[in-house]
Structure to design on (294 residues):
């Protein structure tokens, strides 16, 4: 197997995991997800409407690369049901010692937090958004919710500044995966965002909740940052941040300048890294994935 030079740092002990992951992603294999999803509560087979509005068996399965399945409603319903499955780790929060949820890439509404806060009211929520305009909209939207704290920056190992083209601001979320610090871009067509270190973020959370930074243990890290997830998770591992987190929800993205092949390699590299400390509850290449600490 030819390995891209940019990924030479992958330890040989992860080769088997990498090969298995790449086969799943690039060969578009259907994988098991949550077996109980294939039947109703009374034991009868569950069905779903496919893309042609035809009723078909619902397999409770995922596709490794959902973009090629040709049956988006089927995989989408499956993964949505999996995402809605309970997270008992978030149920133990109390008023004095709340669980902590971090949403990375909150965009304009922090939609994930909107769902989580209904189910897990004893958590404190932190929404991170690198685009200043969106961060201000978040603050306005959540101004009457004391459990929500909006942070106008993204997260990484070190403080950096990024520039995002204004054309990228019109989607459902902002793709920043190809944005690099210090690029010579036209200031009239870009907005500047700030990335702050994990240490800074933990210190800020600690101040808000009267805890030392070392005592801040995020319960859930919910990532939908449109391409930043690859670097973010690898840097979180290097920092030691990821070991603190009980549950990680990841939205994988394949678009951008790197292409699907390189993105598949990066995805599998991150999966291999996460497997050292977390177990996969479900996973969809270039879709949604959940891992839980061992």
């Amino acid at each position: 197997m030819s390995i891209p030079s940019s990924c030479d740092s992958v330890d040989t002990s992860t080769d088997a995991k990498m090969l298995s992951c790449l086969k799943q992603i690039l060969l578009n294999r259907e994988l098991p997800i949550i077996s109980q999803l294939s039947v109703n509560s009374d034991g009868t087979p569950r069905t779903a409407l496919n893309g042609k509005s035809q009723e078909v068996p619902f397999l409770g399965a995922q596709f490794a690369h959902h973009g090629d399945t040709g049956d988006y409603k089927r995989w989408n319903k499956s993964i949505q049901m999996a995402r809605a499955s309970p997270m008992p780790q978030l149920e133990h929060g109390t008023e004095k010692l709340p669980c902590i949820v971090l949403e990375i890439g909150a965009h304009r509404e922090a939609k994930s937090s909107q769902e989580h806060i209904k189910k897990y009211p004893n958590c404190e929520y932190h929404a991170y958004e690198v685009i200043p305009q969106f961060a201000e909209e978040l603050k306005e939207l959540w101004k009457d919710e004391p459990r929500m704290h909006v942070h106008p920056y993204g997260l990484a190992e070190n403080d950096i500044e990024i520039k995002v083209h204004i054309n990228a601001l019109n989607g459902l979320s902002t793709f920043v995966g190809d944005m690099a610090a210090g690029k010579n871009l036209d200031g009239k067509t870009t907005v500047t965002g700030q990335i702050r270190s994990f240490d800074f973020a933990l210190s800020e959370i600690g101040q808000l909740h009267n805890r030392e930074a070392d005592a801040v243990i995020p319960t859930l890290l919910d990532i939908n940052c449109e391409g930043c997830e690859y670097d973010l998770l690898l840097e979180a591992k290097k920092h030691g941040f990821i070991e603190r987190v009980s549950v990680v929800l990841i939205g994988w993205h394949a678009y951008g300048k790197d292409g699907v092949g390189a993105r598949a390699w990066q995805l599998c590299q991150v999966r291999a890294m996460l497997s050292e400390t977390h177990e996969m509850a479900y996973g969809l290449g270039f879709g949604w994935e959940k891992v839980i600490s061992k």
Summary: The CA atoms of residues 30 and 149 lie 39 Å apart. The chain has seven helices and 14 strands. The mean pLDDT is 77.
